[in-house]
Amino acid sequence: MREPNDLSAFWMPFTDNRGFKAHPRMFVAAKDMHYTSASGHQVLDATGGLWCVNAGHSRDSIVKAVQASAATLDFAPTFQLAHPLAFEAASKLSMIMPEGLDRIFFANSGSEAVDSALKIALAYQRARGQGSRTRLIGRERGYHGVGFGGISVGGIVGNRRQFGTLLAGVDHLRHTHDLTRNAFSRGMPAHGAELADDLERIVALHGADTIAAVIVEPVAGSTGVLVPPVGYLRRLREICDRHDILLIFDEVITAFGRVGKATAAERFGVTPDIITMAKGLTNAAVPMGAVAVRREVHDTVIDNAAPGIELFHGYTYSAHPLAATAAIATLDLYREEGLFERAIELEDYWADAVHSLRGTKHVIDCRNVGLIGGIELEPRPGAPTKRAMEIFHRAFDEGLLIRVTGDIIALSPPLILTKAHIDEIFGILAKLIASVD
């Protein structure tokens, strides 16, 4: 007979299930900057959960709002019906988006937000009489969630190889990672704006009139913190404009203060046509994703549709009442505590700490922007990824939560952290990196 907490029952995502279940590491509580492990020791969160707890854990105002909402309206459909919280959440979100991106479509995750954005792009092209524009362009090393649309435009090989034929009509830009010229860049790398010109190659290959949209992460996160070169995003915007192609920014990781502004679009001064979001939208209290769409794109789809449903797309839980409540409370908290501004205030201190690891054994690059940090390690000969994973496990045991992807340590702490927390994070990391073979 199975025990209620039988570890074999849960097939864990993106996990070495055999390794974890032989040596489980679990959390049982969280508050502000710390988790509590099953053994009772405190673990400093240097990853914001999974890039998502931007305002710190179990914040009272969010918790109380969700509790009250659950007792009042547990669920309401948004197919041909609605509830006021959905409109309030959309309005609040639209107010912090770049000018003109004020039409909001709700999903339940970043993956769903990306697939929604891709479908909206295709629907827009058809609605304006450009039905031949069906091609979608992603980027090598890009991560856009795990839906078939997202992994098709994504460029992380490990996320694609098991799943056979993906979406047809997809191509990929070159990635921007260049250790030869840009290692140890502080903020945006100086070299690489010209890599955006790879879009011209793809246009020449397929024809501009076949391309619906280009999707990129302003800062690529899951592939290992790749910060855009100076001028790269602006050049990509210019090429899209020249060929009448929609530009989508996947901001599931970068939105909500992570780079010091509401969006990376605002931080870098480049406005796309569509932005995808999730994670920090609700401070991870309730799953939610969103797509912010330029008004012209929205209106073209709506105004050119036959009477009735204009976009045949949506989710049972789009704008779920608890998620909408969590989003409203979270957006209010960000504003009241000035957390976006706090990221900017701490950015230099954070950058100094990230780059303090330069010269540490095994470290071949350090990179940063906002309150994001990436430390790239030299792969262990014959055993790539093993060195970083060993540090990940040792860090947990030392009371520090980090994230590793390949041989890269990725850091994205809650925006409520202090300089003392930064000192603690990098003190532990320096010791652990130096201690492994």
Automatic annotation (TrEMBL):
Gene3D superfamilies: Aspartate Aminotransferase, domain 1, Type I PLP-dependent aspartate aminotransferase-like (Major domain). InterPro entries: Aminotrans_3, Aminotrans_3_PPA_site, PyrdxlP-dep_Trfase, PyrdxlP-dep_Trfase_major, PyrdxlP-dep_Trfase_small. The keyword Transferase applies. PROSITE patterns: AA_TRANSFER_CLASS_3. It comes from the Bacteria. Pfam families: Aminotran_3. GO terms for biological process: biotin biosynthetic process. Keywords: Aminotransferase, Pyridoxal phosphate, Transferase. Its cofactor is pyridoxal 5'-phosphate. One of its GO terms (molecular function) is pyridoxal phosphate binding. The keyword Phosphoprotein does not apply. Belongs to the class-III pyridoxal-phosphate-dependent aminotransferase family. This is Aspartate aminotransferase family protein. It comes from Erythrobacter mangrovi.
